[in-house]
Amino acid sequence: MNRRHFLHSAVAAGVASALPLRMAMAQLTEVAGELAAVTGTGAEIAIEKAAVQELSDSLRGNLLLPGNANYDVARRVLNRSIDRHPALVVQPSGVADIQNAVNFARERELLLAVKCGGHSYSGKSTCEGGMQIDLSSYRHARVDPKSRTAYVAGGSLLGELDRESMALGLVTTAGTVSHTGVGGLTLGGGFGRLARRFGLALDNVKGFDLVTADGAFRHASAEENPDLYWALRGGGGNFGVVTNFEFQLHPMQRQVIGGEIVFPLERAREIMRFYAEFALNAPDDLYCDGYMSKSITGQGDGVGMHVCYSGPAAKAEQVLAPVRALGKPAFDSVGPIDYVDIQRAWDNTDPRNEGQYLKGGFINDFPSELADKFVDGFEGDPGRNIMLYFQQSGGAIGRVATEATAFAHRKSEANALIIVTWPLDTDATPHVKYIRKYWGEVESYSDGWYTNEVSDEPQRVLNANYQGNYKRLLKIKKRHDPTNLFRLNANVDPSA
Question: For the residues of 285-300, what is the DSSP string, one character each?
Answer without folding.
Answer: TEEEEEEEEE-SS-TT
